[in-house]
Amino acid sequence: MTEIITDIAKDNGSTKSPAMSDWRLRAALNASRMGLWDWDLQSNIVTWSAETYEIVGLEGFDGSFEAFARLLHPDDVAHAMEVVDSALKQKCDYTDEFRILRPDGEERWLFNLGRPIFDENGVPLRLSGTVQDITKRKLAEEALRESEARYRLITSSMSQGVIYQNADGTILAMNSAAERILGKPHESIIGSDSVREEKHSIREDGSPFPGVEHPALVALRTGLAVRGVIMGVWNPQRDAYRWINVDAIPIFRPAETSPAEVCAVFADITQRKQAEAALLQSEKALKEAQRVAHIGNWRWDVNSDEVWWSEELYRLFEKSPDSPSPSFKDAYKNYTPDSVARLTTVVQKAWQTGEPYVIDLERRASAGSRRWVQCRGEAVRNAGGLIVGLRGTAQDITGPKEAEESTKNYAKRLITLEEDLRKGIATELHDDVGQELTALSLNLAFIAIRLGKESEVNLRPVLEEARTLAKAINSTVRNLMNALRPTQLDEYGLVSALRTYAEQYAQRTGIAVAIQAATGFPRLGSAKELAFFRITQEALNNVAKHAEATTVTVALDSDTASTRLTITDDGKGLSPGATLLPPGSGYGLTIMRERTELVGGKFTMSSAPGSGTSVIVELGEGE
Questions:
Q1: Residues whose CB falls within 8 Å of the CB of residue 210, separated by 6 or more in sequence, listed in order
Q2: Which residues are CB-contacts of 538 (< 8 A; sequence separation ≥ 6)?
Q3: What is the pLDDT of residue 586?
Q4: What is the predicted pLDDT for the residue at 455?
Q5: C-alpha 551: how far from its chain's center?
Q6: How many CA atoms lie within 13 A of 377 on its CB side?
Q7: Which residues, 6 or more positions from 564, have their beta carbon under 8 angstroms from its beta carbon?
Q8: Any idea of the CA torsion for 572, 573, 578, 583, to the nearest 10 degrees?
Q9: Measured between alpha carbons, how far is residue 286 from residues 92, 116, 278 in Å?
Q10: Neighbours of 234 (CB within 10 A)
């Protein structure tokens, strides 16, 4: 470009303007896409080349400097004039960039290169130079500045740290998040490298993390992106390690095969790591608690039929935690057939209605031993409220079950012993006291026959009183025998025995008792009938002591599925939240419940203030 201006200056040594037809200039101008201009300072005439006309966007031009000045952007006029004045004063070449407004309204950026020409006395004669349209370059520079501004805004607002390093690993730039995460100021890191900066870094297992293995340096060596590297970096401000997850991406220049730079982006995952550690500790504590309590938990996803078991659940069912997860149906194989049937019923109900369940099940165990598990389950619903699975726990209750079974057997022996004792006493009363009372009655009758007339007047009242007393004692003994072991129960069945006992109870207490039973009510077997009779006795005793009732109804119902005994009084009932029975009556309740369970039945009791109390005993078919 300097050579072109020099040629123009030589041609301008005369008073004539440069020759616009010179082929050398034309070739140069076409090649560089620039225009020539000349300003005769003496005549104030401006001469342009055709390329200049094209750049400026004018077809006609009056050749004055003022006409050109009118094209300048208003904001650039002062600066452009100042540059020209300075070049004339300093007698030197100059360059300038300014904007013009073309006649078509388009704004263009021009690059102007000028050289002043002076005479031998230093008087300026003319200015000559070149002009080039740099609008595209300016737009590109502006776009670059906007892009850089956006980049700075993005990186400064990012929560992730960003660091740029050149090909030898030197750190070139970083954002504020990187300073915060690393706990080091910008000026202490720029110019350093990963080897020096990572000397206090550690791996997840606590071992040192060598700087040469930093993801950024690995990406520079291999030319491949490195992602998801977790490392601990020492933060001097916090005096603690911060855990980061690092991605390193190599940056290539066009046509180059080795990275020119690398960009490392890292997120502070310290809170996540702390949460993971806390969760791990919590899971460890949960496993320990489950191991001590012999309880495991499970989840069932209905759609996939996948079942998850806790580690303790595998141990409870004598399986390896490494074995495949069972399906829900496979889990049934751990129980006895009777338990499977009962479990199926409650699971189906939970799946259909969402009702939770608690059930004791007998499981299959090795070596033929009996083991018991208490299973709890509840429905799992999605956000829409639909049931999508079940979850629950299973606890080994073999110890409590064995203790319960032992208690039941002991209670059964006690009740059997009690019944045998009752039966023995009743037999003795019948065989000994009953016979003696009979003999006494006969003797008194014999004496009455043999009395003389003189003695009869004095002894007859005494004999009659003795005979009446003997009858009363005999009646009392029979009632006592009936209470101890009602012979009607064995001979005529439960309904007949209850009716007889109800009459005696009504006479003794004044409380009316109605026995309701269908005609042809079936015999239930000795053990069941005896249990129903004794439970009725105990319930009626409680009514007499606590209920303040006037009427009691004893109802017997039977169908193909079950037999039910219901005892209902019209007494004062119990207040909400009160104990089921008043103080002093708990033993009777226990006896009733134990007698029910010993024959395989279900015992329930309900009460409300002013509405009396109901005792219900239900025996299923085959129980």
A1: 198
A2: 588, 591, 592
A3: 52
A4: 66
A5: 56
A6: 25
A7: 555, 556, 557, 558, 616, 617, 618, 619
A8: 70
A9: 87, 91, 12
A10: 18
User: Angle at which helices 398-428 and 586-598 pack, to 10 degrees?
Assistant: 100
> Residue 68 and residue 62: Cα distance in Å, rounded?
9
Beta bridge partners of 193: 170
d(CA 489, CA 469) in angstroms, rounded, equals 28
Phi/psi for 273 (5° steps) reads -65, -40
Q: Tell me the C-alpha distance between 256 and 357, whole Å.
A: 70
Question: What's the DSSP call for residue 63?
Answer: -
Number of H helices, E strands in the chain: 21, 20
**Encoded amino acid at 556, one letter:** L
pLDDT along the chain (623 residues), means of 10: 46 44 56 82 88 83 79 92 93 94 90 94 92 90 77 71 90 88 87 65 91 91 94 91 94 91 93 89 83 86 85 86 78 85 91 92 78 92 91 90 79 74 71 70 73 66 78 75 71 87 89 89 84 88 89 90 90 65 57 83 88 89 57
pLDDT for position 22: 56
Query: What is the reported pLDDT for 197?
Result: 52
Long-range contacts of 204-209 (CB under 8 A, 24+ apart): 204/230, 204/231, 204/232
Q: Which residues of 119-146 are buried (b: 16+ CB within 10 A; e: fewer)?
A: eeeeeeebbbbbbbbbbeebeeeeeeee
Q: How far apart are CA 529 and CA 539, in angstroms?
A: 15
The residues, ordered by sequence, that sit 6+ positions from 328 with a Cβ below 8 Å of its Cβ are 300, 305, 307
What is d(CA 485, CA 421) in angstroms, rounded to the nearest whole number?
A: 10
Cβ atoms of 564 and 603 closer than 8 Å: no
* pTM summary value: 0.47
Query: Other C-beta atoms within 10 Å of 261: how many?
Result: 19
pLDDT at 390: 92
By the 8 A CB rule, do 190 and 173 touch? yes
CA distances from 482 to 420, 426, 497, 556, 609 (A): 14, 8, 9, 21, 35
pLDDT of residue 133: 92
Single-letter amino acid code for the residue at 401:
K
Inter-helix orientation angle 453-484/398-428, to 10°: 160
Residue matched to tokens 């479990």 = 343
Those residues whose C-beta lies under 8 Å from the C-beta of residue 441, and which sit 6 or more positions away, are 467, 470, 471, 474
Q: Please state the separation of Cα 264 from the chain's center in Å.
A: 34
Q: Are 342 and 359 in contact (CB under 8 A)?
A: yes
At 559, list the tokens: 């169908």
Give the H/E segment covering residue 470: helix 453-484
Q: Which of 238, 311, 223 is nearest to 268 (CA)?
A: 238
How far is 149 from 341, CA to CA, in rounded Å?
A: 72
pLDDT confidence of residue 585: 47
pLDDT of the residue at 289:
82
For 483-593, list the strands marked E by DSSP: 512-517, 551-558, 562-569
SS3 per residue for 190-238: CCCEHHHHCCCCECCCCCECCHHHCHHHHHHHHCCCEEEEEEEEEECCC
Between β-strands 551-558 and 512-517, what pairing exists: parallel, antiparallel or unpaired? parallel
Tokens of 365: 């165990």
> Both tokens of residue 189?
């890191």
